[in-house]
Specification:
The complex is a heterotrimer of chains A (306), B (98) and C (99). Chain A is mainly α and 306 residues long. Chain A has eleven helices and no strands. Chain A has two domains: 85 residues; 186 residues, no CATH class. In chain C, helix 1 packs antiparallel against helix 2. Classes of the chains: A mainly alpha (306), B mainly alpha (98), C mainly alpha (99).
Chain lengths: 306, 98, 99
């Protein structure tokens, strides 16, 4: 049974994506991409994936949008924002080939077996041993926790990569242009910290968890940078340890579980919830700080005066 | 259909009217300032009505607090963003004149 | 597969192909980064749609967890790619500026 709302949503988000990818004006493309992210997050909600919807709205649309806009304005300053979008012969060929790929993928997809329970039954069997009731959190922090451990490494590695190629920040707090934005940032800071803590705590048995909470903190950090309230030279010494906090917590737990004769990250069932919560708290802080520093687009040092 | 459902339905229909009005304003108004005027006012009212429609369906008071908080946050951030856009547009138009 | 599951999975394929096309066809680095993000979202959508089998049946949480991981990795990759693209743009225009 297909609902009208799903059809409308899918058509709108496909149109948004197409216009974003083929329009001449790149600023319009970026704004359409942000709108596309919000529509996709509605799609996740329709597919009963509220955890993914939260992550998409905060990270996929919000933070990616902020990153794209800041990169756009850097490119605009360098007058690099026009793109040739006419359909040449080579582009028609590319369009034809990708269309063929799409049709064949669609045929394969529709021939997949329909009533396969996949992994949901296994997870329902074991969820009582995982320490949490939210099955997504159970997968992320228990059943496949080494994926999440490696993800913390990816977060750190991308930031180190950015610092390696860009010795100066692209975005830097400067004299505030209006007091209104600073007032909003001050109002939201305590509120969003509470929201992040709430999402983190809630993640054990309802949609939420470390990534969503970390994304809220990251968004808050971006707002503070944009409102020029954050002063990196003072804060950088303090945030460096916070960047690796999540990874260190994970590694400590991994070491201890191996030390007591279990396999890596195999929590004792009675301690599982406590361990998950500690790892998640540390990871939330690290994710929030990493995402904020990602927005600076370079090593946190004032940009060169040109 | 209970009384609560009826109230929800009426509120949602009214909200849709205001969202539609705001969108028409966004598309039809001649410049940034009038567009912002149409969009922010109509959408705040529309969202308020949606919150009201949801509120009469709620089972617990804590959910009502969450809904009210969301409404308030959207209004505060919407007003701030409207201010920032208007400010940017104003400085650009004064640049053109100068 | 249930109706809306197929609908979203096919939409995911369409998004992936659009992203792939734009990635190949258009030269601007910002557009290529947008295209990679759209293609990635398409892959996520296929994953999640395959884990959904109608409103009554239990959902498969494994794709959800993978996609949440994927979204965060995607924003990291986007951040790094944008920094590279902005740096590339700066070196690219340098000769013109000197003239």
């Amino acid at each position: 049974m297909i609902h009208l709302v799903d059809v409308t949503l899918v058509v709108t988000l496909l149109a948004c994506a197409w216009l974003s990818l083929t329009g001449r004006d790149l600023l319009r493309s970026v704004v359409l991409f942000i709108a596309f992210g919000l529509l996709v997050s509605l799609g996740w909600a329709r597919l009963r994936a509220p955890d993914v919807a939260l992550a998409e709205a905060a990270v996929g649309s919000g933070l990616t949008g902020a990153l794209l806009l800041s990169a756009f304005s850097a490119m605009e300053r360098a007058r690099l924002t026009t793109d040739e979008v006419g359909l040449t012969r080579a582009r028609w060929l590319a369009l034809g080939l990708t269309l063929g790929l799409g049709v064949s993928l669609g045929v394969v997809l529709l021939s997949l077996p329909s009533d396969h329970p996949r992994l949901s039954l296994h997870i329902q069997e074991r969820i009582s041993q995982s320490g949490v009731l939210n099955s997504v959190t159970a997968v992320l922090l228990n059943f496949r926790s080494y994926d999440t451990l490696l993800e913390m490494v990816v977060l750190l590695a991308s930031l180190v990569g950015i610092w390696a190629v860009a010795p100066f920040a692209r975005v830097w707090p400067k004299a505030p242009s209006t007091p209104i934005l600073a007032a909003l940032a001050r109002l939201l800071l305590p509120l969003m910290t509470v929201v992040a803590g709430y999402l983190l705590w809630l993640g054990a048995d309802a949609p939420g968890g470390a990534f969503q909470a970390g994304a809220v903190l990251g968004g808050m950090g971006v707002l503070w940078v944009a409102a020029s309230l954050w002063h990196p030279p003072w804060a950088l010494r303090m945030v460096r340890p916070l960047l690796v906090l999540g990874l260190l917590a994970f590694l400590a737990v991994a070491g201890v579980t191996m030390g007591i004769g279990k396999s890596m990250l195999e929590y004792p069932a009675s301690q599982a919830k406590t361990l998950i919560l500690w790892i998640e708290t540390a990871a939330t802080v690290s994710i929030g700080v990493t995402l904020t520093l990602l927005f600076l687009g370079g090593y946190p040092a004032p940009p060169e005066q040109s | 259909m209970s009384w609560a459902d009826g109230i929800s339905l009426l509120c949602i229909l009214a909200a849709l009217f205001f969202f539609l009005a705001g969108t028409v304003g966004l598309l039809r108004m001649p410049d940034v300032f009038t567009r912002l005027h149409a969009l922010t006012k109509a959408d705040n009212l529309g969202l308020g009505l949606i919150v009201l429609a949801t509120a009469v369906q709620l089972q617990s008071w804590t959910e009502l607090v969450k809904l009210a908080l969301i409404w308030m946050l959207v209004m505060v951030s919407g007003a701030t963003v409207a201010h920032l856009i208007a400010r940017m547009a104003l400085s650009e138009s004064s640049d053109e004149k100068a | 597969m249930s109706g809306s599951s197929s609908l979203y999975a096919l939409a995911g394929i369409a998004l992936f192909c659009m992203g792939l096309f734009a990635l190949i066809a258009y030269p601007h680095s910002l557009r290529k980064i947008l295209a990679a993000n759209v293609a990635g979202t398409g892959v996520f959508m296929i994953f999640v749609a395959l884990g959904y089998q109608g409103p009554e049946r239990p959902i498969d949480p494994v794709p959800h967890a993978l996609v949440i991981t994927g979204i965060v990795v995607a924003v990291c990759a986007t951040g790094l790619a944008l920094t590279l693209a902005v740096g590339l743009g700066a070196t690219h225009i340098a000769p013109d500026e000197e003239e």
